[in-house]
C-alpha cells in the first residue's frame, strides 16, 4: 500500500458512542452515532494528523472497513431496520452503502479542504489528488494497460464530479442537513423494490421523522419561514448522488471486466456492479 503525505491538518476527533436518553429524536440519534464513526470534527491546531495521498489499493482496504462501519452506523441510528428480514437488510445495505460513501466523502472534503476541487477525501485520513491520476495506482499495477486504466478511472471521477459537485456547492449543507441526507438515502426506494410492506412502513416512518426534524431546525435554529430553496437544494443533491452511483456502476463494470480491478475482493465487486 503506497501512500504519500499531502498535508497536515488538525486531528479528526472520534467521540465515543454514548446515548443516555431513550427519548431522543432521530436526527439527534444520527448525530450521536456519527460521532462514533469519526466524521470530520476538527480539533485544536496543536493536534495534527496527516492527510495522505491514497491510491486504489488503499481505497480497497478503506472500502472493506467502511462496509462494516456503515452497517453498524445505520443499525444503531435506526434500530427498526434490524427487525427486518436478513434478506431485506442486505438489500437495503446494497442500496444505501455507496450513496453513504459519496455523501460522507463530499462533506468531509468540504470540511477539510474548504472546497471540492483538487483533493477529494476517500476516508478519514486519505484523499485523492485529482490533478495527478497517475498516483492512483501502485507502481506496476495495470501492466501494459496501466495508462488506459488510469484514463478510465480519471474519466469516472470527473464524470461524477460534473454531476455531484455543483449540487453540493450550491446546497452548502449544514451538519444538520448532512445528517438528514444520510437518513434520506436509506429511505430512497421505489415501489418496485423487493421489500415487504413492513419494510416500506419502517422507511416511511424514518423519512417523515427526519424531515419533520429538519423543518423544525429551519424554523427554530435558522429562523427561516420559507425554506423551500434549502430543502430543494437538498433534494437535488440527493438526486445527484443517485446519478453519481449510476455513473459509478457503468465504469465499475468496465474496469472489473476489462482490467480485472478488485479481482480478489468479491464483496467490493458485488456492491459496485
Topology of helices and strands:
Layout: E1 4-10, H1 26-37, E2 48-53, H2 56-77, H3 86-113, E3 119-121, E4 126-129, H4 146-171, H5 175-187, H6 197-221, H7 228-258, H8 266-272
Parallel strand pairs: 2-4
Antiparallel strand pairs: 1-2, 3-4
Helix pairs in contact: 1-2, 1-5, 2-3, 3-5, 3-7, 4-7, 5-6
Report on this structure.
With 273 residues, the protein is an alpha+beta fold. The chain has a single domain (4-272), classed as Orthogonal Bundle (Retinoid X Receptor), CATH 1.10.565. The chain has 8 helices and 4 strands. A 4-stranded mixed sheet has the order 1-2-4-3. α3 packs antiparallel against α5 and α3 (86-113) packs across α7. The longest helix is centred in the C-terminal third of the chain and has 31 residues, at 228-258. It is globular. The chain starts with a strand and ends with a helix. Residues 25-273 form the NR LBD domain. One of its GO terms (molecular function) is DNA-binding transcription factor activity. Keywords: Receptor, Transcription, Transcription regulation.
